[in-house]
Amino acid sequence: MRVLVTGACGFIGSAVCAELSERGHDVTGVDALIPQAHGPHAVDAGAALPRGQVHRVDVRDAAALKPVLAGVDVVCHQAAMVGAGVAVTDLPSYAGHNDLGTATLLAAMSEHGVRCLVLASSMVVYGEGRYACTEHGVVEAGTRPPAILADGGFDHSCPACDRPLRWDRVEEDAPLRPRTAYAASKVAQEHYAAAWASHAQSRVVALRYHNVYGPWMPQDTPYSGVAAMFRSALERGEHPRVFEDGRQMRDFVHVSDVARANALAVEQVVDDPAGSTTALNVCSGSPISILQVAERLCAALGGTMAGTVGGTAPTVTGELRRGDVRHVVASPARAAETLGFVATVRPGDGLGEFATAPLRRTG
Asked: Any residues with CB less than 8 A from the CB of 223 and at least 6 apart, and which?
């Protein structure tokens, strides 16, 4: 098949392009090369794009999309402005890049008869994860009260009986409750895509990535994930700083698994019913705490790099980061059933390898 990948020069987009090419697909890529993702020398990086394979195109530019959409069977939409996006002043940037970019792309796809989309979404659409009380079953956790957080009460309590809540795996039919500008834009992307699928009798698979990490992850940009931030701290000879008490549970999924999930979705979406939209968690299925991530990197980096403090414990600060949620752990069941996708890299193994993997340095 002929596949157009947006955001093709990014951390995940470049891995998706490589996976699709290895599977025999005809891949064309576009990327706007925005400085937030590619560093201050993004313009210079454009000169190094492989001729005929990746083009410098902003998906908000309908005219520029026209030639690259010709003959395309599936669009794999990775392009987005990412990061925390916790300030109200961030809203216009996220809406401009992510909402308008996706809407423009969908309109151009319809104009050129492209009816299949694989969309990069995110776990952030859920806000908080899923919680259960021993007495009252699954309950809505809500927002953690600031006064209790200030006293170090990081976990949720049952609104009915005040007992501590336990985290559970989030399934794709959970309510979408975004907490940040980035999260709101990801929900909007899914909604635009679903409306487009229904109106244009097209097909959408939305892949909700959990915490993606791996080789060539960006370093020291708003696109750097927590694993890259911890590693950077170690390389500077500092202790990784872990917020709250470090017991926040997440799912870390390797970029190679994310790329494979995209390829499986690309190969299936063309056979999905017209007008259909499917959302799938893309995760490892092996939850890990943020403190365990930092500890794994400390242990793996012990003495292997000049100036590191590897082998020492992270610093658990008790500090809060605005917009953070307590636990988000995904159910991998629907992706396994729908795509046959099962992650092959467990976080314990992948994070150890990530400790010395090459990173994308944009400074």
From this structure: 10, 11, 36, 37, 82, 83
Report the alpha-carbon distance of residue 105 to residue 32 in Å, rounded: 13
Question: Which value, in Å, is the radius of gyration of the alpha carbons in the chain?
Answer: 20
Asked if residue 207 lies in contact with residue 268, where contact means CB atoms within 8 angstroms, the answer is: no
What are 214's two structure tokens? 């791996």
Residues (pLDDT < 70) of the chain are 36-52, 84-86, 220-223, 303-312, 362-363
Q: What is the pLDDT of residue 303?
A: 46
Per-residue pLDDT at 266: 98
Looking at residue 323, what is its pLDDT? 74
| Tokens 């060539």 found at | 216
Nearest to 197 by CA among 76, 114, 81: 114
Which phi and psi (to 5°) does residue 130 adopt?
Answer: -105, 135
pLDDT at 308: 45
Residue 307's pLDDT is what?
44
At 143, list the tokens: 């927002």
* Alpha carbon separation from 271 to 116, 265, 268 (Å, rounded): 9, 10, 6
Q: pLDDT per residue over 109-143, tens digit each?
A: 999 999 999 999 999 999 999 999 999 999 998 88
* Rounded (to 5) percent helix, strand, coil in the chain: 35, 20, 45
User: Which stretch of DSSP H or E encloses residue 347?
Assistant: helix 347-354
State phi, psi for 340 to the nearest 5 degrees: 75, 25
Looking only at the bridges linking them, the beta strands covering 288-289 and 249-250 are antiparallel
What is the pLDDT at residue 241?
A: 93
Phi, psi (degrees; rounded to nearest 5) at 260 = -65, -40
- Exposure string of 17-38, with b = 16+ CB inside 10 Å and e = fewer, is bebbeeeebebbbbbbbbebbb
Residue type, 29: G
Sign of CA dihedral 169, 175, 180, 185: positive
Q: How far apart are CA 57 and CA 77, in angstroms?
A: 13
Q: Which residues are registered as beta bridge partners of 209?
A: 122, 282
